[in-house]
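Shipment paperwork, digital attachment
Item: protein structure file
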Amino acid sequence: MLAKRIIPCLDIKNGRTVKGVNFVDLRDAGDPVELADIYAREGADELVFLDISATEERRKTLAELVYHVAEKVNIPFTVGGGISSVEDVDVLLHNGADKVSINSSAVKNPQLINDLVAKFGSQCIVVAIDAKQIDGEWKVHLVGGKVPTEIDLFKWAKEVEERGAGEILFTSMDHDGTKEGFANEALAKLSTLLNIPIIASGGAGNMQHFVDTFTSGKADAALAASVFHFKEMEIKHLKETLQNKGIAVRL
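Attachment content:
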């Protein structure tokens, strides 16, 4: 059985780590380089670094910051935000990223997924999908959750897999920052549809939420931010708890 992964997420705005609720009301959570170093030493399996305003502000991900974060950590590291070309990915990988995450640019130009996979391999291409329920149906949202679409979450996820992406990072906007648990029903449905790993994001508030998303949600990895940034939970303790519940993790 593959070990389940615990992934702290560093949402970056203006060079600082921030965290909000339902994608708004952001507050400062610290220096991303320092946090990355702490999480790597505490036993995180991977890190995700998202420049959350890069797409909205039409600028590129902060490659220099990526370099400094990568310099500090010895675990796999995914970078996203404002990526829209093969050249963008080339810069990030050369600055130390292990994987890249694309979101809005993939929806606007699905061929980008194929192009990135052909150039860099599926193992380093993650497609992030932000979605929320509208009239009972999960709809994809773009530009940091600000732009709704009519695209169905499950159909888009299947297309993403067919185009060669190596992994999907699914964030439930309804659950983001609420600390009321992950969107396990949607995650379980994604799991039955797809053969690639699914990272659960949005809603972590306590250790039972992680247990639930790995069991009933069938997620391969769980991503969280505020519970780690604000010291509400230690990664080592979380992993010990998961192991005691019979969930395979790397200690």
